[in-house]
Structures are given as C-alpha cells and as structure tokens.
Amino acid sequence: MGALDLFNFMETKIDGVYIIEPKVFGDNRGYFMETYNKNDFFEAGLKMEFVQDNESKSKKGVLRGLHFQTKHTQGKLVRVTKGQVFDVAVDLRKGSATFGKWEGVILTDENKKQFYVPEGFAHGFLVLSDEAVFNYKCTDYYAPEYDSGVLWNDEDIAIEWPLDGIEEILLSDKDKIQKGLKDLEISFEYKGSN
Questions:
Q1: Residue 81: inside a domain, yes or no?
Q2: Which domain holds residue 82?
Q3: Is residue 190 assigned to a domain?
Q4: Where is this site: Participates in a stacking interaction with the thymidine ring of dTDP-4-oxo-6-deoxyglucose (predicted)?
C-alpha cells in the first residue's frame, strides 16, 4: 500500500488543525485499522513526534478544558474508543488570521475520526454519550507547573457547544475559574503552515 492510503487527512478552516479518518478494514470477524503511521503523517505534512499517550474516562456532561501549557506546549492527536464527544481546538497563536477562532468535531467510537490539535492551541471536549473513553497522543510531556487554560464558555471565543440532551455541565474546580481570552498572557507565535 502506498503512503496516505490508510488515512484521509482533512484540512479545516484553521491552519494546522486536521480531521483524520483512518481506513477501516472490516469483515465478519471485526475490523482492523492503523491509528497512527509516522510515514503517512509526515507525508501529509504532520511532522510531529509523540512522547506520551493518555486515556481518560468520563460520564455524560463532563467538559474537560479548555487546556494548554504555556511552556512545553503540546500538540495532540485525539480519538474516542468508546462513546461520543464534541472535541474543540481554539487558536491561541498571536499573528494567526484565526486567533481566537475555534474548530470542533464529533468524535465517536463508530466514526473513528481523529482530531489533530497543534501546539499553540487550547483544547477541550464535552462528553455527549453516557460514558466516553478518550485517547490522545502528545508531542511533549505533561508539565503541571505550566498548565493553563481558557474559560470554556468565553464570549469572545463563542464555541457552539452541542448542549441538547446535556442536563448539567460537569467541570473541574480549575476549569470553573479559568480566565477569558482577553485576560490571557500568551506567548504562542504563529509560524505558518507545517
């Protein structure tokens, strides 16, 4: 199989953010798919190295985010292995034409889509199913001393969260008191396409 045959890399309206559909090979036994292939990703222009994989399990209405690290910034390749989430990336790169804009996608265990969120973005997700298992690869290690975020419902960003059927938004104490976009001290610079 030639390069790029195993993935459909879809550019979004924000430079550097991709929705990725892996090719799924299924039969009466089940299915097989690659979720990451360095050669294919590099050929598509996604030239990153992952150093840490994480998994979280959350119940319906849990909203994690919007998170970023001020140093040791992390690019993230995210996917859902159980359930359904609405996943969001917010551009925090100074000089970017899309600074403060967001891109969102529904990720499910059924559609098997992945979402690439580059460094210089805030990231978060809302669980839409009764339960969701969320997996993500990171380009740098978690550094709690540089952990930061932006308020999930900041009016300047104006994310259109799909709240139908969500009785209560469940946030961590930290996420309840995040700053708005106007109050952030950000040093991410836009460097153009990968």
A1: yes
A2: 7-183
A3: no
A4: 142
Q: Which amino acid is at 166?
A: I
18 assigned to active site: no
Query: In the chain, which ranges are E strands?
Result: 7-11, 18-22, 25-27, 30-32, 52-59, 63-69, 76-82, 84-91, 102-108, 114-117, 121-127, 131-138, 147-149
Active-site annotation holds for 67: yes
Is residue 189 domain-resident? no
Candidates 18, 116, 123, 136; catalytic one: 136
How many domains, in total, are found in the chain? 1
Q: Token pair for residue 53?
A: 């994989």
Q: Domain of 30: which CATH number?
A: 2.60.120.10
Q: What contacts 121, CB < 8 A, 6 or more positions away?
A: 17, 68, 89, 90, 91, 92, 93
59-93 pLDDT, tens digit each: 999 999 999 999 999 999 999 999 999 999 999 99
Separation CA 176–CA 153 (nearest Å): 10
Q: Which residues pair with 55 in a beta bridge?
A: 135
Q: Which of the residues 67, 72, 116, 123 is marked catalytic?
A: 67
* Residue 178: inside a domain: yes
